Amino acid sequence: LESLESGGISLYVHIPFCEKKCGYCDFYSLVPLSSPIVENFLTQLRFHINYAQMLFDSHHVKVNTLYFGGGTPSLISPRQWDHLLNCIQSSFTFHSAVSPLQQISIEANPESLTREHLDVWQDRGVGRISLGLQSMNNRCLTSLDRLASRESNLKALKLISSHWRGTWSADLLSSIPGRCWREEEKDLIELLGFNPPHVSYYHLILEEGTPFFEKHKEEELPSENWQRGKDLLLKEGYRWEEVSNFALPGYEGLHNQAYWELKSYLGLGPGAHSTLLYNHEKSPNLIGKRWEAQKI
Ligand code: SF4
Asked: Given CA atoms 148, 66, 14, 123 in this order, what sign does their dihedral have?
């Protein structure tokens, strides 16, 4: 930690809850959602935040970026976010060299994002939302087993456009089985109509062990679509930041950049990993160990 004093650190917090498992996803998450488990998780998380705070304070380490990923972080209620972000803000000192828009980011799914979330996030200093759309097409969303629909995606995009003062990013999936380039292009063009400062445009990967893999393992994915989508994004003024990420100039995702630049980060939560490994008798499960579902 001593070596981080001047450079600062990034934090990742895994919020491990989903309302339903998407057919292609092999991330660790608990389904279905249960209130006592969420409350218990948040209590444990606050304990871990306090421990990280003591460690950082004693080594004068500042936080550059903090990213809440999932799971589905927008399943946490606005009231619970208010408490959690209050705890974060009173625990960590953020590096003044990092723009407030980039310091705290939260992933959200369209079907659970509300105006109240945006209000609390704005009040508590969140600068960036990452919206998991994946597609704007109901047939594709159904084939992916997403809970969201085209309608809920549009509603979330309109909500962000009208009420969000920070910056934001949207995720779209490329190479969904059975989809031609024209349909994928429609998704991109519709999204770009909302002027997202950043777009994460991912190749769909068939992950072994998922229902999606079993259903499509014999098929060839239309992977050539991604290159055409990339060309479209570049033509529209986005810069290719890294592998799947595209940003308008000045809106690059600083948190992700820290991973690519092999900078130090600390992960909290059951599916998070870290470059820092440390242990403490008072915090035996803090790092490098998967939190047991029944203990959350
Ligand atoms: S919402 Fe995200 S984390 Fe949850 S199952 Fe779907 S893709 Fe996986």
From this structure: negative
